[in-house]
Amino acid sequence: MMEERTMKKYIISLAFVLAAGIPVFGQTSYLSEIKIVNREVVKTGDRQANVKMTVSLDNLDMKNQHSLRVVPVILSADGSQQQELPSFVINGKVRDKVQQRTEAFEDTDLNPDAVVKVRRKNGTAQTLDYDASVPFKRWMIGGDLRLRAYVTGCALCDEGDENTSTGDIFPPMTPAYYSPFLQPKEEIVKRRSETRSARLQFRQDSHRIDPKFKNNAAELDTVRNSISLVEDNNDLTITGIYVTGYASPEGTFAYNMKLSERRAKAFTEYMKDDLKSVDPKLYHVDWKGEDWVGLRAEVVKHPQLLKIDEVLNIIDNCGDDKDACEEQLKALVPPEIYKRLLNEMYGPVRRNEYRIEYNVRHFDLAEGKEMIKTRPDLMSVSEIQKVADSYGKGSPEYIDCLMRGAKAYPNDVTAVNNAALALIEANRTDEAIRLLENAPAEGELLNMKGVAYVKAGQYDKASQAFSEAQTKGYSQAGENLKLLKQYVEYMAE
C-alpha cells in the first residue's frame, strides 16, 4: 500500500509540473540567452562570404552536462537555398571535461568543423569571436544569416529545434545610373530644308533644257510639284532655293566645270520662268563640276562590277589631276568595265541638285496633336515634347509622340535621348537599344545606350558604351561606368 501511495504522489507531482510548464529534463533553449554583437558579413576580394561576429555569453546559464553546437546558416531570400558555415561549440563544465578526455584518449576531434570551442563559466562575462567563410553565391544577396542550435548531453533534447535570425545580409544593389531627360530648346525661327535631285537629259554638248526630250517632262513636273508643295503650304515660307550643278567625269575636268555651270544656270532660269509666283531673288546658283564622290556611291551600288576594287581604288586615290584618273578608268581591262561605268554609273552623277529652304510657323497644342500624325518634321522638338507631355508621361501616346519625333529628327540628340529614355522606363529596352544603335555617336546618346544595355543585362556592351561616352567628354558616363563595375563585382561568384 505504501508503494502504491508513493507512486500516486509522483504522478500527481509530475502532472503539476507539466501543467505549470516547468522543464522536466533540463533547459535546452539557449539561443535566447546568447547575444550577437559586432556582426559583419562581407564579400571578400577572393569572392568568399565572410562572417565575423562576437558572441556574448554573459547571460547564458549552461547546464554542466550540456554541449551546445551552433551552426550559422545563410538562407536565401525566398528560402529555397541555404549554405551552412562552420559551427562554434559551447560546453558546460562537466561536458567539456568529458570531451577533452575522450579526444585525448581516442586522439580524435569530436567537433571537427567547429572554428571555436569554449567552456562556459556561468555567472561571468564571457565572449567568443567567430570568423568563417564560404564561397559567395549570387542567391545570397538579400538573404538572412540564421543560427541553428543543437544540444547534446541531455536525455530528451530537441536537437535542431532552436532557430533564430541575426538579420539580413548582402542588401540588393540597385545602382541609380545617370540617364537624364533633356529639356528641348525652343526654336525662335523654325528653319527647314529639303534637298532633291533633277536629272535632266541634255542633247550632246548642249545645256539647253528641252521639256520634250526623253523623260524631261516628267522630271520637270516633279521639280515643279516639289516647289509648289512648299509654296502653297500656308504653314511654310520659302526663304531660298539653292541650285547646284554636277557633271560626270567623261571629258576634261575644265570642260565639265563649265558644263555644270551652264546647265545649273539653265535649270534655274527655266524654273524662274515656269514658277513665276516664286520671287526670282530667292534662287541661288552654284556648280561643282565632276562629282567623284557621287560616282563612288554609284559604283558601290553595283557590287558585281568586274574589278570593282580596282575601280574604287582609282577613285579613292585620285588626286588633283582628275583627267588622269579618268584615263586610268578607260584603261581598265576588259573595256566592258569602262562601258558599264559610262552607261550605267555616269548618268546618275549628271544632275542638278536643288535645296528648298523655308521657315515654318509655330503650332499651338491643338494644332500640334494633328500635325504630329502627318508632318512631325515641321514641328520643333519642343513642340513635339509639349504634345507628348499633354498625354501624360509614360502613357502609350507619350511614347508614340517621342518616337515620331526621333524618327523625324534622327540626328537630334534631345529627340533621340528622350525617346530612348521613355522606352527604357516602359521596359521596352530592346526598342531603345535599336534606336540608340542607329543614333549619332554623341556623349549623351552613348551614355543612354549604356543604360539600356545595363537594363538588358549586356554588361560588356554597357561598359563599352559608357567608356566611349566618357571619351567624348561626357563625364557622367564615367560615374555610370564606376557604378557598373561595382555592381558586376558585387554580383560575381
Automatic annotation (TrEMBL):
<dbReference type="InterPro" id="IPR011990">
    <property type="entry name" value="TPR-like_helical_dom_sf"/>
</dbReference>
<dbReference type="InterPro" id="IPR024480">
    <property type="entry name" value="DUF3868"/>
</dbReference>
<dbReference type="Pfam" id="PF12984">
    <property type="entry name" value="DUF3868"/>
</dbReference>
<dbReference type="InterPro" id="IPR006664">
    <property type="entry name" value="OMP_bac"/>
</dbReference>
<dbReference type="InterPro" id="IPR006665">
    <property type="entry name" value="OmpA-like"/>
</dbReference>
<keyword id="KW-0472">Membrane</keyword>
<dbReference type="Pfam" id="PF00691">
    <property type="entry name" value="OmpA"/>
</dbReference>
<protein>
    <submittedName>
        <fullName>DUF3868 domain-containing protein</fullName>
    </submittedName>
</protein>
<feature type="domain" description="OmpA-like">
    <location>
        <begin position="202"/>
        <end position="289"/>
    </location>
</feature>
<feature type="domain" description="DUF3868">
    <location>
        <begin position="21"/>
        <end position="106"/>
    </location>
</feature>
<dbReference type="InterPro" id="IPR036737">
    <property type="entry name" value="OmpA-like_sf"/>
</dbReference>
